[in-house]
């Protein structure tokens, strides 16, 4: 589907339905032209080469899905690959929505295969606010990228809340399921980081006097978006450190719990091994003190049990004094 908006200075944006009008407005180069391609079919994609005459490599990158934000300068226009956050109900399956953009001297072309809220919001502003689209093609790009970056803030805040919940579970009753939750959110953060950091670099380049199609007035707006992206990158790094700390806490708690169990088992093993030693010695078929009826006393068995009980009690007292149990 193709949606085309056009505006002259001071006027509200209007929809352009005919391809002939689109070609004429593009040739005249007056006003601001915005062409949005949402899930375009093959026939609709042909305007990228036949009408706008974009480079074949840029068109191929636009059609193919890319996971790396970038900006390529083709002289008269820029080709950008940007991403917005897509909320998912299940952790470990975090996804982003790709947005391809062509920024020329008087036009902006956007291409997407999924609905993107930033595009819908920008279109609504252009249709409802007089002169919004007429502020410039680069200003339109700024407003779209601003909403894209802000979408990551909402996602990071949701991840932060989940990380706090995981930390509470760690100190109450950590289980294998808690470990799975930690790895799932860590996977999402790593995916987020792979997108946010390159995207921050793209915004930094747009905020400088590097590209001719971006006016100096709008560069200040891109600096504001870059500040937001820088904050998002910092939040991502902080969240990654927090999740790593949660993983280390889980491993420490499990290790301490295992050590406590092994300590108790070791104490019981030492006590039982000592008693087994005495029982084994008196189970030998030779004469031993208190071990033969003809040697003397019939109560030697009970005396032996008393000695073994006293020895066990002494070992427990010794372990308690050393604070081993």
SSE order and pairing:
Blueprint: E1 2-7, E2 14-15, H1 19-28, E3 32-38, H2 42-45, H3 47-50, H4 56-63, E4 70-73, E5 78-86, E6 95-103, E7 107-112, H5 117-128, H6 137-172, H7 176-206, H8 216-282, H9 300-321
Helix pairs in contact: 5-6, 6-7, 6-8, 7-8, 8-9
What is the gyration radius calculated from CA atoms?
36 Å
Q: Identify low-pLDDT runs.
A: none
Number of strands: 7
Counting H and I runs of at least 4 residues, what is the number of helices?
9
**First CA to last CA: what distance?**
73 Å
Helix content: 55-70%
Average pLDDT for all residues: 80
Within CATH, the superfamily of the largest domain carries the name CorA soluble domain-like
User: Within the CATH hierarchy, at the fold level, what is the topology of the largest domain?
Assistant: Beta Polymerase, domain 2
Shape: rod-shaped
Structural class: alpha+beta
Strand order within the widest sheet? 2-1-3-7-6-5-4
**Largest sheet, strands/sense/barrel:** 7 strands, mixed
What sequence of helices (H) and strands (E) makes up the elements? EEHEHHHEEEEHHHHH
Would you identify the CATH architecture of the largest domain? 2-Layer Sandwich
CATH class of the largest domain: Alpha Beta
Q: What do these coordinates show?
A:
With 325 residues, the protein is of the alpha+beta class. The chain is 60% helix and 13% strand. The chain is rod-shaped. It starts with a strand and ends with a helix. The mean pLDDT is 80.
